[in-house]
């Protein structure tokens, strides 16, 4: 069994969300059905990145780190080409 840290992007707004789950497909569906209070206003969401871990502790530690400013900068560097191409398509 794997534990996932994931990054969602709102398709309507310029919002990102970082979360943790042990059932990735179910959790994304829950976000898009409005079952999560903090993400409901920004529906619909799309998955843009995830990481899988065998250890729940490792996954939770990674989620906590990615939610820091340093972790957020790391994610933006990892996904640099994705965000760059997205910006080009807006113009």
TrEMBL record:
Gene Ontology MF terms in the entry: endonuclease activity
Pfam families xref list: GIY-YIG
Domain called GIY-YIG: residue spans: 1-78
Keywords assigned by UniProt, alphabetized: Endonuclease, Hydrolase, Nuclease
The UniProt record lists the keyword Transferase: no
Annotated InterPro entries: GIY-YIG_endonuc, GIY-YIG_endonuc_sf, UPF0213_domain
Family: Belongs to the UPF0213 family.
Name of this chain's protein: Endonuclease
Organism: Candidatus Portnoybacteria bacterium CG11_big_fil_rev_8_21_14_0_20_40_15
